[in-house]
Amino acid sequence: MIPYGKQNITEEDIQAVAKALTGDFLTQGPTILAFEKAFADYIGCKYAVAVSNGTAALHLSALALEVGHGDKVITTPITFAASANCIRYCGGEVVFADIEPDTYLLDVNKVKQVLQSAPKGTYKGIIPVDFAGRAVNLEAFRELADEYGLWIIEDACHAPGGSFTDSKGQKQHCGNSNYADLAIFSFHPVKHIATGEGGMITTNDEKLYKKLLELRTHGITRDTTIFENSVEFAVGQPVNENDPYPGWYMEMQTLGYNYRFTDFQAALGISQLSRADQGLDRRRAIAKRYQQSFSGKPYIKGQSDVIEGHAYHLYVIEIEDRVGLYNYLREHKIFAQIHYIPCHLMPYYRALGWKENDMPLAENYYKHCISLPMYPTLTDEEQSFVIDKIATYFTK
Ligand SMILES: *Cc1c(COP(=O)(O)O)cnc(C)c1O
């Protein structure tokens, strides 16, 4: 059986987790901080906050940016539902804008049209997605966001290690938060770095970082410099003028959650991260081979050419008879997948007023897209088998 994506757990990974399990901490131990630091270094940002999954990362990001009731936020319909749902968790309103037909990414010009059609201040933020691993040009989004006073959350779940080149010729890694306010990642087994469940928020903004730490753990702080209640209250008996807060004391100052990551997952994360570049190279080699095999085949429309900086979480092609190929591949135990059913046409979002033809390019893309097997341990033989089966399907 050949799936579309798969984790790669090595003996090293197993040893790392075993070691963490025999340590003093199962959760909230020092390995989490070490993983956060290593991840921030890898991505090239100042701060990273590990959380229980990518969806929690999105939810906490929306909370940290104070998304509230009725706040309007723009995102793409071609993404996993969580990119949009995080706004709904906060009572906000999701506004979809269409994709670019050749990159499948949220179209900055479509976003601009949405913004221009309402008075300034109507919209609060944008959530672009590095779909399939192709980096969004966040410089263009930042310019627009600044014009309208919006924040940006980059959903970089597909793109750790991916990058785009900005107008100054600088390589900008996905999630480095040079243009976005916050970026989020997932460590679900199909993603580049697998920790079972897991997620990360990255930022360069210290205030947001501190807020995220608090929100991750019930809104509780132990920072004595910001306590609101008096020392006397905290101690529970009369105190002298300069008495400190007692050791047990902490305050819940805002409504937070338990979205914590665990120490043994962090150990797995660190071990996985050490092989991230290797995995990325392999993904790019697989993409190149698909590209070469499909070039000149009129029945296949690729996601443009092999692109520098593409992290290849997915290798997507567009074809006419999608269901035919999908079923044919399954008969041969090749489990290709479809990414994504347009989010605005999920029954939940239809019930909020979205309907067919609202996003014609995304809807057309959905009719033709199929994601082929793409993961570092896919062997050359397996890939040849996939390529052969596709060729056979179209010549039979
Ligand atoms: C996987 C994914 C998420 C959610 O991550 P989980 O860890 O599964 O909660 C969000 N956005 C995108 C684009 C994803 O691919």
TrEMBL record:
Which CDD domains is this protein grouped with?
AHBA_syn (cd00616)
The taxonomy runs: Bacteria, Pseudomonadati, Bacteroidota, Flavobacteriia, Flavobacteriales
Which residues carry the post-translational modification N6-(pyridoxal phosphate)lysine, per the record? 191
Record-stated family: Belongs to the DegT/DnrJ/EryC1 family.
Query: Which branch of life, at top level?
Result: Bacteria
* Keywords on record: Aminotransferase, Pyridoxal phosphate, Transferase
Q: Give the NCBIfam families listed for this entry.
A: PseC
What EC number(s) would the UniProt record show?
Answer: 2.6.1.92
Q: What is this protein called?
A: UDP-4-amino-4, 6-dideoxy-N-acetyl-beta-L-altrosamine transaminase
Where in the sequence is the active site?
191
Name a biological process GO annotation: polysaccharide biosynthetic process
User: Which GO terms label this protein's molecular function in UniProt?
Assistant: pyridoxal phosphate binding; transaminase activity
What sort of enzyme, by top EC class, is this?
Answer: transferase
Organism of this sequence: Flavobacterium humi
